[in-house]
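Sample pair:
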Amino acid sequence: FSLFLREQFLLSRNYFYSLLTFLKRITNGLTPAPDECVKAGEDGSDYRGTVSVTALGHVCQRWDSQSPNKHSRTAERYSDSGLQENYCRNPDGESGAWCYNGEGTVPRWE
């Protein structure tokens, strides 16, 4: 039972630190408003802005990098998707613009 409580505490602590990081970044203007990348009723596939952080505040991985997350979403394979730098994009029809997490592998993308 104590192992269960310890795991729950660690999960809660990790969630708390993620939330704290997100709140710090949003107050510093680093995290976009949810509708900045996607207009109402659209999927963000035409977004060509410069937002480069995920919804939870993780810095995006460059599209031309395979680290820390290996992927097949490259400028060569998705030439009309604007996959440049580490900007949020929607090359594959997701519900909105997104990017790979450049700070680690969990979550892989947002």
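Residues 42 and 52 are 19 Å apart (CA to CA).
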